[in-house]
Amino acid sequence: MTDGTRSGRTTSARGRRPGPTETREAILAAAREMFADKGYDGTSLRAIARAAGVDPALVHHFFGTKEGVFVEAMRFPVDPSVLLPQLLALPRERLGETIVRTFLRIWGDADRRAPLLAMLRSAMTNERAAAMMREFVSSALLGRAGAATGVPHLNIQAAVGQMIGVMILRYVLRVEPMASASEDELVELVAPTLQRYLG
User: Fold this and answer.
1) What CATH code is assigned to 5-72?
2) pTM, to two decimals
């Protein structure tokens, strides 16, 4: 008689262990459901593992951190644990320019833009989706950036808010001349304001 698990992995009805791809997808499916139901802050790696029927070590093996699971499960186009250290390694006076170019690179890619737009639309019409995004952005992005730089959270939020507005005008509403402006034109226009926020 088996309880359906061996060495922390689920087994099929015939006793065959699922392969790495099946296990990974089971974890992602469980994570999506838990993030939607409990929010980002209310979901733990251990809870995701329990819902997926796997050992927590497997979740850590595949995704590293809760942020890593969220990025994969929700198709978030950037991993904060990778991006933030890259930004923070730059000279402080280059932050404004680099952030503008980073936003343009991410939003300019249709495949990476699609999940962002889906999340924004969900957050505008569904309070659970809004809470999940708010918790993730506050904890994994803005909170970490503020702690690492000493920049007040309001300043960071103002910088991010300005960039989201620019991206929506450029890529969603396609308002001219914003939609057809070159990257260098937008950097020259917007980067000094961001730099003032982030100083």
Assistant:
1) 1.10.10.60
2) 0.72
